[in-house]
Amino acid sequence: MKKLTTTLLALLTAVTMMAQGIAFEPEGTTLEQASAKAKAQKKLIFLDCFTQWCGPCKKMARDIFPMAEVGSYMNPKFVSIKIDMESEYGAPLAKKLQISAYPTFIIFNADAQEIGRFLGGSGAEEFIKKVEEKSRDNSSAELQARWQNGDRDPQFLMQYLNTLNASYKNDEANLVAEAILQGKEATFANDSTLRMIFMRSINNPFATSFVYTVKNPAALKTAIGEMPVNMKIKNVLETYHRQIITEHDGTASIDQQKFDQFVALLGEMGIPEADHYRLITLITLSEKQKDYAAYIKYIKEYLANPKLDADDMQLARWTKPFSDPANQSPQKAEMKAILQQRLADIQAGKRQPQTQVGNMKLSRPTDELLRMIVSAMDGKMPNQ
Asked: Residue 33: phi, psi to the nearest 5?
């Protein structure tokens, strides 16, 4: 009887496991912990990279992961973990894994070496198909090994670049793109394929092709237009801080040497808005460090620079650290005074409120938005 009871319990447990969705490890499980368990159980690792604001992430968690057919496929093969890529542990991991779109799903072997990845929400059948495909797809690892071993065959470089772009591995894609464009800095604008590689994959302001283009933009502007080239240059320079600001254990720091080299590069390239990119980096750093005295200091320096101009939407974005009622730092009043001065300038006709950002028409002029923010900083509802 005891043996029968034990057998029935085992069967019921097996049925329950088969009937559930993906058996994710407890919240807070790290990739290192998943690796240890995967080695012990001779399984692969499935990582769901998500954020709290990602709609498709929530849909997958709500509708797909709990499905019995998904669990019955995943659970025997994988140690599955979910990591918020904006959490204290997740943020540096996202940078290391080059996660830039959500949801991203990554398959690792038991040693936490990536086998394959795919992006985006899907139905159950498609999800299982992609997991199965990427679980046996060692092409990324093989291509990476060839790259690291010095293979620079042009056909291989193109194949590897396409693989990296498909996986949104932007940092590695930049390195491969630099290798493809090396020696072609003055001529790539005449080749449609090379132009596409530059526009899609170059994100390093120190890349020789980028420096050359900033100094000599005419050929590329003739080929694809002035606006795309200007936007490309601005995007690379404005987002460089992501590569030199590091967040770990709730603190942020900057690679001072790289920052100094960046500032020197801006001067070398003769960019009129050099101080914009320098100050945007420092404002971002001080916000992450919660150093609000430095934060306001750099904002004021930005606003006092006659070569720069912060529009109303930029001012609104800079108020974000002070939207938290718990933040009662003295600098909150200084930020409020900055907004009030902008409103006074608009009322006096010294500035015009924005009614659109780029091609997007705003639902209300920005002076109304700024007044709402000031009211909120006073603890009042917008209609009070």
From this structure: -70, -40
